[in-house]
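Example 3.2
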Amino acid sequence: MRRGGQPGRHTSAPVTIVFVSSNHLTQEHPVTNHSPRLAGRLNLAVAALIAAATCSAMPAHAAAADKKTMQIAAPWEIGSLDPAKAGYIFTRMQVSETLVGVDAQGGLAPGLASGWEVSANQLVWRFRLRPGAKFHDGATLTPADAVRALERARANPGVLGNAPVQKISADKDAVVFELSRPFSPLAAFLAHASTQILAPASYAADGTVKAVVGTGPYKIASIQPPQKMEVERFDGWQGKKPAIERVGYLAVGRGETRNMLANSGQADLVFTHDPANFDRLKAQKKLKFESMAIPRTIYIKVNAAHPALKDVATRRALSLAIDRTGIATGVMREPRAAATQLFAPVMQEWHVPALQSLGRDLAQARELLKSAGWTPGPGGVLQRDGKPFKVTMRTFSDRPELPTIATAIQAQLKEVGIDMAVAIMNSGEIPGGHKDGSLELALLARNYSLVPDPVGTLLQDFGPTGGDWGAMNWTSAALRDAIAALSAPATPTGARCCAAPSPPSCRLICR
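Structure, written as tokens:
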């Protein structure tokens, strides 16, 4: 966003903010069981920066009609109006809200629920709604409205379906969850964008979402999926009035185009850039960089039932053939981004410093491949049972570093005789390939803060049948037991979460 010097004053030095974030490069593998911790901050990224702009004026050369409009460019398409598919776009743009929010430190905070309490046996959670909250169509939010939205979220793909919820009901001014067993991350699950509360007017007669009518400080003025949306200030918002009157959102898949929008000043806030372009972008004095370390891990999703990948020795060889430090240094321009395990050091209560690091060992990789029956074939490509070792890795350009990393992995695997093709596709081709079984390998970036307790993401990725973005044709009873233990209550007694900051005794239960 273009920012000036003092609130309410114009400036002749417009600045475009370029948002970048840190990644962690690894390969999918099981995690160690230890105490859960809130890790989420990325959900606040757009909202926090929009909020920061409320203290600044638009530049002097901006057209008078546009001086209160901020333009955002990001790689994420508006793929659907359904919260289960693209809900994060609408929560980040502050159009809709969830029962529970997340503060700047990653802790849980009131959202549409002003507070919540848990029964002594941990089986009943009661979320009191914020009094007087209104939808953008003027209707007052009722507990019944919230129950309808949450039941829909529970039935659709998303995190809530992984919680042991038996019943959701309305009771006076509250929404009540009844559980089949104690489940401490429930409040964190209710901060996920797929659980956002929409007005009854949002739904068509068949239950599909026809419009996003939320309760946030901004309402949708116009929308043209999958590329464009414009939101405007909602006068019925109960909180502090936003100073930015209108915000435009443009989904731009190509990193080069986002760079151009940043350089030209056509966008005020530009998300996600290829690290290789940082030096050139930083040379532009009109650009200001905002960065945040977040718990995002880049990893390889493997179809463990694929004929070439079905044995453990082959999969271990793939891991040993990858030079994570080289990729982190050469592609990410940050040697510390090389992974030693699934969770980055920023996730202090999940990262295990003593765990053996993931390293490169080509000699051991070749020995493992030999033990798995692979022998040299024509052109140096390995073969087994007369079939060459050829696989395809799917990836996408929403995260601009992924295609470059995939190409680097392609070259590294070639050194041990693996012929890997790279297919740059729409990100939806990865879950699609998981469902129809066609996926072989995929390179993706998994954000462990979308649910502000990583257990939510782990349950999605490592359940008995795997997950769209997680395991494929691989499961582990020990891992499932470890994740279940992480979701167990931290204390046997009930506690009350009223308003941020909540007391320590409350955080033990509500995270």
